[in-house]
Amino acid sequence: ERYFQTYALLGLNDGNLPVHRGMRQKRYESVEKMLDLLDVARKVGPKAPWQALFLDPHDPEWDDDMSYLYVDQSLYRSWFTYATLAGLFFLYNYRIMFHNKNFSFVTKFTLGGVWLYSNMVYLKYRQQVLRCNLFDEYVQLRADELINQNEKMLRSEEMKRFIWYTADLKETLARCHRQSYKNDASDFADSELLLQDFVRRYTDETEEMPISGKNASIGH
């Protein structure tokens, strides 16, 4: 995440870095304060009740293997290609394959085999699709179980504060931008003020330790 933040702050979405090494170094140094402020802004947020977002790992009801199911598209794509080429071959050599008694058995055996295997492939496809649909329904049941089990925590004041903080942080970051290309910290003068104001909203400067593990998500 820090990589993408640095990438955006350096302005690489709008152009390349300066050609000269000295100017490039200044560009790197110009974003250090913003990165530090972003780290602080993420640490001052209220703790989220993470236990409300996960099922109880000690519950024997959920001791199953949640392997992701998928449809084997490569198999069906390969068989479709083979069947198409075989059909084109028989159509191109229609007179030889269907009007020559020497090829009668080969023609019937090949077409019968293609028809039989096509039905087997189709049945396998239907089975895989059914299993995937049942798996989706099962996952939905687990999601509903999670919500019902933790509904009180999801509606708690702690969760509301966390959601409010997340929305506020997203809106603040959307307003942060590089306002000039002097390759100096002043390029983010307005953005620094926005982040500093954001940090003040979620900390109490009168306390001895405005940021602590009791009131902020430090370490997450």
Gross morphology is elongated
Q: Which structural class matches the secondary elements?
A: mainly alpha
What is the terminal separation in angstroms?
Answer: 13 Å
Count of DSSP E strands?
A: 0
Order of helices and strands: HHHHHHHHH
Average pLDDT figure: 79
The description of the largest β-sheet is: none
Task: Give the uncertain stretches in residue-range form.
Answer: none
SS summary, helix count: 9
- Structural domain count: 2
User: How much beta, percentage-wise?
Assistant: under 5%
Which value, in Å, is the CA radius of gyration?
31 Å
Percent of residues in helices? 55-70%
Description:
- Helix content is 62%, strand content 0%.
- By secondary structure, the chain is mainly alpha-helical.
- It has 2 domains: 2-49 and 156-201, no CATH class; 65-151.
- Helix 3 (32-43) packs parallel to helix 9, helix 4 runs antiparallel to helix 6 (104-149) and helix 8 packs antiparallel against helix 9.
- It is elongated.
- It starts with a helix and ends in a 19-residue tail after the last helix.
Map the helices and strands.
Blueprint: H1 2-9, H2 21-30, H3 32-43, H4 73-92, H5 94-98, H6 104-149, H7 151-154, H8 157-175, H9 189-201
Helix pairs in contact: 3-9, 4-6, 8-9
Question: What would a concise description of this structure say?
Answer:
The protein is mainly α. It has helices at residues 2-9, 21-30, 32-43, 73-92, 94-98, 104-149, 151-154, 157-175, 189-201. The model has no long low-confidence stretch (mean pLDDT 79).
Which properties best describe this structure?
9 helices, 2 domains, transmembrane, 220 residues, elongated, mainly alpha
